[in-house]
Amino acid sequence: MNTRTSIRAAMLVTTALTASTWAGQALARQAAPQDDTAAVEEIVVVGTRIEGSKVTAALPVTSIDAKQIDAIAATSGDDLFRSIPQMGDVNYNSSYIPNSSNSARGDIGSVNLRNLGSGNTLVLLNGRRVVAHPTSQADGANLVPVITFNTNAIPTTGLSRLEVLRDGAGAIYGSDAVAGVVNTVLKDNYNGVEAEAQYGFAEGTHMKDYGLNVLAGHTFERGNVTLFLNYNQRTALRSGDQDFTASADKRPLFTGTHFDGAASLDGRATTTPWGNFTAAARVTQNGTAITSTAGAFHIQPTSNPGCLASAGSGICFDDGTLATSGEDRNLRYDPQAGAGTSIMPELKRLNIYLTGNYDVTEDIKAYGEVGYYTATTHAFQSPTYMTTAQVMTVPSANYWNPFGPTTLNGAANPNRLAGINAPAGGLNVTMASYSFADLGPAKVDVKNTQSRFLGGLKGEKFGWRWDSALLYSKAEVKDTSDGISATLLQKQLALSTPDAYNPFNGGNVANPSVGDSTASSAAARNAIMVKSTRDSTSTLASWDFKVSKADLFHLPAGDVGMAAGVEVRRETQKDDRDARVDGTIKFTNSVTGITYDSDLIGTSTSPDTKGHRTVGSAYAELAVPVISPEMGIPLVRNVEMQLAGRYEDYSDVGDVAKPKVAVAWDLVDGLRLRGSWSEGFKAPNLEQINASVVTRSNTRTDYIRCQADLQTGKITSFSNCTRTQSTAAQRSGNPDLKPETSTSTGFGVVFEPKFVPSQFGQFTFTADYWRVKQKGIVGIFGEGNALILDYLDRMSGGSNPNVVRAAPTADDIAAFNGTGLTPVGTVLYVKDQYQNLLPQEARGIDYNLMWRLHGTRIGDFDLNIGAAQLLKFYQSPSPAIAALLAARSSGKINAGTTITGGGDLLKQNGKPELKWTAALTWRLNQVTVGAFTQYTSDVQDTALLDSAGAAWTVDSQLTGNLYAQYDFTDGWASNTSIKLGVRNITDEKPPVSSNGYMASVYQPYARYWYASIRKSF
Questions:
Q1: Phi and psi at residue 700, to the nearest 5°
Q2: CB 3.0–4.6 Å: which of 250, 314, 712, 986 could bond 509 by disulfide?
Q3: Hey, which bits of 382-441 come out as E strands?
Q4: 703-711 vs 783-795: helix axis angle to the nearest 10?
Q5: 705 φ/ψ angles, rounded to the nearest 5 degrees
């Protein structure tokens, strides 16, 4: 073994011992070399750039090794990342499949360390940045488009380990490392071939998983090439598979609670195939009004009360708007019932990674990575429905118009109601709300691809280790879904033949809440359907050069280590929306002449967005020994310090410079105190800066209407208010946004009891307090808050000018009669803009316990326990939000209003106070048994409030996984392993919430069984 190899081996041992002993986290155990000439794998510890330095002892690092990964039994990166106790709610997830492509859909998972928000955690692959998922999504708290890494692009069975730096690291790694850093380390330097097949299923559901993994590598005289392939195929999880997803009406799940019967739990759609319409004038039949004064009427079964005119086939006409909160509640549409929708999509996923290294000379090594990920998903979601994005008018000449002309096509009109006062030429009818349920569930197909190419050189010169690499990575998403063209629909509605689309035929008389048994003709349905696509692309190109030296110069306490480097990266994002959405193909209402920028029914206008930036950066880091054991100072056995600083210059948002200081102090051998202080930053993403006016529609409550209903006695509390509607928000980007900044502090203790006899194993305990303060978080006021402000202003005779409404109709005026409140019309849209908001503070404590006992008569034992306790999570409200909170507190507005964007967020929604996990592995000869358990404490569901403003408590959950593996060593089955396992062995369902379950916290299924067979060659 030459000198260079000896130094590398010594540094390997030093790093491994440091991370294990002082950081309290076990690094992955590497397979024993097959012969004396096998290369020693270099272990990378996240948190420092100084190779071979002991400075990692001052940092709180969690390392999830191969044994723990086996016990977690993750079938996706999302499963694996959710097992990290410090990981917050997963806003991007595969079970979130909204009706609009405005959000990320498909094979997707997100990273949200410490709940500080998606995009505030830096993700690395083998120590270098990864490309961001190109499709943005509005986060749950601030409603701005956020971008994150797709965790499902990580091949879980191809990982050597997962490292989590639980500390701000902007001074080391740059932007996005506010909450910390996650480094995924792939297996490499493998020699041989290993193949594994796996099958699993979620008990009591239609979801089944099939997997194939291949690891192959070859070591030659001067290098190695390793290939990893992972293929997964999964059938869909259907809404009807489980009771908490089988219906959008969640009221039965709350029977016996104080929310028993709460109307707000009925999540069935108020936009149904039992359409709401408005005729051009009030209509009477034989002198009796069959529409409201404003011409409003709706379709309903004759079995419902209030029928005013028969339409045949068991349906009739009633005046006014469909009262989906009262006697007509049975007409709400339940897309999850009947044929149902997809809770998790059908999936095919492929991950391929190739790594290699080659000794060019004795002092220079070439290395590279090539990665490719692709995933296709197929899902079914709710049928398309009308929103305020377009106003559709049914011409008087429509064949099915009940108020059509007296004669049609030269004959008596067969569908005009008899005895009505409509003019001989008929009346136009506006479709106020309608679900195209007769077209069936909308199919959503998403294809994700991601490629990564890296090539570099590294070596040693003049005692310095140097490393330089070029990286290019690209991610693409093509989202295709069924849609309806407003232009084609208008054309079909204008037909005077039976092939005209018929919105007046109601739904399913036998089961009014499910499906539509009175479909329009196939010709009519096929004529209006289109495919809508959204193509998103992001790229990352970078070059870096870095040097490090563990013994730059010597101090009395030891060697000073140093690292320095420069990096240049270019980031791009392009969001190419469908031509029917971005304004290319517009819709003109042929009756009113009004033109709308979106031609896709139910989808607001979304212009294309693109942007790019170039970032140049430089950093330096020092590892400084202050006191060593040889100095013999009482109660100061050892003191080490990390000093770091980084400067970054952005082509679009200016420049930033951030420092970091970390200190480790050994009182005695086995007892260490550590602390750190650092500043961090997060640059606004390219969409937040470059987006023009983006219209997004969300279901919001018009609280001034709730107040009117409360005062007139239609409801008894705001929890029973159903004045919700699809509300459009016109949000605009802001080129003047500045980077979000943060300050992180942490203090901890590491205790390794030396007095415990070695026959009882090695124990390490760590506890770390942390606090993160953020400033300038990018957000918006939010259309929900804007409606509450409008409610507050209107209570005193004013209004919110950012809430743009239509003029009140006669029906609107009647709804406010006797309340003393000024009647309001329908909300057309709400104006908003992205801006840097006020501070946020979070703090907590992390606990870790590691126990290892190897070489006993009864086998080897490995135990790892990790816990994250959240002590505080407070978002300082903006002045406008503070005014709303004060108004609610003083009783000026109802306590049942839901105000977002400020206040104490601890235990709310996806922010549990405590999460912990434990992994135990036992191995004896050819038998291995692994167990993993995970606990999440209760949270408050702020979407479900009682009359006093108290939220529903979502219960805590404790789950456990167990597997057993047998390794054959003799005969034809030698080098073969068989594994049987179960996740969530006690069959714990996700705790009940207002949506049935919280997808951002829990997976939507319970017990999961799996089996695998692995063969090595």
A1: -130, 160
A2: 314
A3: 392-394, 407-408, 411-412, 429-433
A4: 40
A5: -70, -35
